Amino acid sequence: MNLHNWKKSILTLIYLCFLMCIPLLLIGVFSYFLKGWFIWDFDKPFPFGKEEIVTILKISLLGFPIGLVLWLFYYRNS
Question: Is residue 9 a contact partner of residue 75, using CB atoms and an 8 Å limit?
């Protein structure tokens, strides 16, 4: 394996991990906004705060292991 293929493989790994984090982040934001909209009493402020943002960011970190698994079983072997 030469150096060029190694760099390309690692860049593919980083790219996959990043691309798996983005949809999880968007799905999390959408689901928390939808949940907040369903339980919202219009006389009170919208129920979306710092705790929800931290939870969404924690869930989006699952993109790293998903990207690693995709890289291991698909891209690295092709």
Answer: yes
* pLDDT 10s digits, 19-76: 999 999 999 989 988 888 888 777 887 777 888 889 889 999 999 998 888 888 877 6
Q: Which residue type is seen at 40?
A: W
What are the angstrom distances between the C-alpha of 69 and each of 6, 50, 74? 17, 30, 8
CA distances from 71 to 1, 3, 13, 42 (A): 17, 18, 6, 46
How many angstroms separate the most distant Cα atoms in the chain?
Answer: 64
- Helix H segments across the chain? 3-39, 50-60, 63-70
Phi, psi of 32 (to 5 degrees): -70, -35
- The whole-model pTM stands at 0.74
